[in-house]
Design goal:
Largest sheet of chain A: 5 strands, mixed
Helix content of chain B: 40-55%
Strand order of the largest sheet of chain A: 1-2-3-5-4
Number of helices of chain A: 7
Largest interface: A-B, 35 and 19 residues
Shape of chain B: globular
Radius of gyration of chain B: 22 Å
Oligomer: heterodimer
Number of helices of chain B: 17
Structural class of chain A: alpha+beta
CATH architecture of the largest domain in chain B: 3-Layer(aba) Sandwich
Number of strands of chain A: 5
Strand order of the largest sheet of chain B: 2-1-3-4-5
Helix content of chain A: 40-55%
CATH class of the largest domain in chain B: Alpha Beta
Chain lengths: 279, 366
């Protein structure tokens, strides 16, 4: 193109510049893809460490159980320790809940079969599991779902995964918020015709326009570098990307709403067919 | 009591020994090293057989009344034994086993799994409530173990005192109802035999022709004890724990514990094997108490002014249910139906709350 004599020089220069820019973008995308793949592979390899971590974590919680019991015993002699004993006991109970939930989730995720279940009860389980985080940051999580509402025929672990990711993202967006306004997350679900609609909205810091497209990129995270500032900032950046893949596989859609419900800054809307054809 | 503790962590053994010593109950706690349980077994011979013979010899020498068995025995270096191997051998010997797992706080899903495990494996061990072994303080473990051992002993003593009980073709429900001194209970207990045939299955002779029930009071007492404690008392039906008794009267537990109410229900107190493990009541006798109060205990003269709280105030006279997962009374309308198959059909006051069922069933397949 550069050496072509058939194109008027000024146009030729512009076309070449545009082609160069396009090439740069392709290179950058390919590089990003390659890095993402490598990064995902590396993270998968560390699954083995997760196993050890779980084992050690279990032992740590066991020790904490003993520690709570010892401090409680000591607090009979020294009442100033009573508060500490209560705090350790609460932490131990919370960790026990997380472990119990993770075991339940992993066992179920090993058999991803479609099944019937009530949406409200399963949303409640996820919300209760993350309740210590919400309570610690004074976040009110409201669930507006009819008790009798049927969830789609789908693997229940997938439904949990979707709710857990949307809720934890919402909580993460609320932690850095500095305002007198009460921190709120609202989850609601309904069945509309043959579709199940699930919305998770929060009044957190919101997502700037220039980042709206990037939230779906695998490994893109707003919290990797700011982990120290945001106590929930431990994201790998896989959440929404994986949620989108799972939702698509279930023949559903997930959208970041352009206009969130009044009083909320961000809202994700998931729609799923009530009878998922094949996973 | 002679208590053998099968545990691979010496610090825990030390703590159990120290706690019993401090309690001064006279219980002798024997550790694996004290009785030579975990020295190497011979090669070339059946491992299970050798282990059984070793336990048999230990029992002969030390007269073991109860075994406290850890679930994780992976740290024994000399000998590879598992809790299931121990349970199997001890079941054959008829020595009662209390099994435990040192773990963290209970959650609803853990509780559900524990209950399912009791229903599945309740023929070979009693589960120690996790809170008794989880902390540093094991003080509450001592009276609990003593109470469990006394329960088995009471049954054994009765069977020895009245050998005819095991010789007549009464069936397990017939034998237990007589051990409990309540022949009319047999029909209620039959509701607990449905999923527990293996419990009392007579050993088939080698040639497979005849079936012969060995009336060994020790073995029979242990089996009956497991049945009573793990099924009949765990899943309330004819015999009720405190929250189930409150549910039967359709009042909450605080109201049930009111001193005036306690006076009314005292005649219904269960007195029999394992009555020191927890407080239990006879359902039929509680029924008589309610009847004497005109169908609603809250309307009895002595408690009328106390404003007892109903579980379900829409049906004051009707019993509510006992949720086996939360251990609390629940309204009939709040109970899931039907019951999972691991709840014995005879446990007619036992249910699971609908909310918990909807939360846990999809994830844990009740």
């Amino acid at each position: 193109m550069r050496s072509s004599t058939d194109i008027e020089p000024e146009h030729r220069h512009r076309i070449v510049e545009q082609l160069k820019l396009a090439q740069q973008r392709i290179d950058s995308t390919e590089q990003y893809d390659k890095e993402s793949r490598t990064s995902l592979e590396l993270m998968s390899m560390m699954g083995v460490m997760a196993g050890f971590l779980t084992h050690e974590f279990e032992k740590a919680v066991g020790s904490l159980t003993n520690a709570a019991s010892i401090v409680k015993g000591l607090s009979k002699r020294d009442p100033t320790l009573a508060e500490l004993a209560d705090r350790i006991a609460i932490i131990e109970r919370n960790l026990a809940h997380y472990m119990s939930y993770m075991r339940m989730f992993i066992n179920k995720a090993r058999q991803p079969k479609s099944q019937a279940f009530k949406a409200a009860a399963q949303i409640r389980v996820v919300v209760q599991t993350l309740a210590p985080v919400a309570e610690a940051h004074d976040i009110d999580v409201q669930v507006d779902v009819d008790k009798a509402l049927e969830a789609p025929m789908m693997p229940v672990a997938a439904y949990h995964g979707i709710v857990a990711n949307l809720l934890s993202n919402a909580l993460k967006a609320l932690v850095p918020k500095r305002s007198d306004e009460p921190r709120r997350v609202r989850i609601y679900a309904t069945n509309d015709g043959g579709r199940h609609v699930l919305v998770c909205a929060d009044n957190g810091i919101g997502i700037p326009d220039y980042l709206r497209a990037r939230v779906w990129d695998p490994l893109y995270t707003t919290t990797a570098d700011g982990a120290e500032e945001n106590p929930l900032g431990s994201g790998l950046g896989l959440g929404l990307s994986v949620v989108r893949d799972v939702v698509r596989r279930l023949h559903g859609t997930i959208r970041l709403l352009d206009v969130p419900p009044p009083g909320y800054a961000t809202a994700f809307r998931v729609t799923l067919p009530l009878n998922v054809p094949v996973l | 009591m002679n208590l053998l503790i099968i545990e691979d962590q010496s610090d825990f053994i030390g703590r159990v020994k120290a706690t019993f010593e401090a309690a001064g109950t006279g219980t002798k706690v024997l550790a694996p090293d004290d009785v030579g349980l975990v020295t190497k077994l011979e090669e070339g011979k059946s491992y299970e057989e050798q282990f059984f013979e070793r336990l048999q010899a230990i029992h002969k020498q030390y007269s073991i009344d109860l075994v406290l068995l850890d679930t994780d025995l992976s740290r024994f270096k000399e000998i590879a034994i598992s809790q299931s191997l121990c349970r199997q051998a001890l079941q054959e010997l008829g020595i009662p086993v209390c099994r435990y797992k040192k773990t963290y706080s209970q959650t609803n899903s853990n509780r559900l799994q524990d209950l399912k495990r009791i229903a599945r494996e309740g023929a070979s061990a009693v589960w120690v409530p996790p809170q008794l072994v989880n902390g540093e303080d094991l003080v509450a473990l001592v009276p609990w173990l003593e109470a469990v051992e006394q329960g088995f002993e009471k049954i054994r003593d009765r069977l020895i005192a009245e050998p005819v009980l095991l010789q007549r073709p009464l069936g397990p429900a017939g034998v237990l109802s007589r051990v409990l001194g309540k022949g009319t209970l047999r029909a209620d207990l039959l509701g607990y035999t449905a999923q527990n045939f293996f419990f009392f299955a007579a050993p088939i002779e080698e040639d497979g022709v005849g079936a012969k029930f060995t009336p060994n009071p020790q073995i029979a007492a242990t089996r009956l004890g497991y049945w009573l404690l793990n099924y009949i008392l765990t899943f309330p039906g004819p015999i009720l724990n405190v929250p189930a008794a409150a549910a039967m009267l359709n009042i909450d537990v605080d109201s049930f514990m009111n001193l005036e109410v306690q006076k009314l229900v005292e005649p219904a107190l269960y007195k029999g094997p394992f009555d020191a493990v927890a407080i239990y009541y006879w359902r039929d006798q509680l029924g008589s108490v309610v009847e004497a109060c005109g169908g609603d205990i809250a309307m009895a003269d002595s408690v009328k002014l106390l404003s007892l709280r109903y579980v379900d105030d829409k049906t004051p006279g009707a019993p509510s249910y006992y949720c086996v997962l939360t251990g609390a009374p629940i309204k009939r309308a709040d109970a899931a139906s039907p019951n999972p198959d691991w709840i014995p059909p005879g446990a007619d006051l036992t249910r699971i709350s609908q909310d918990l069922f909807e939360e846990l069933d999809p994830m844990l397949s009740m």
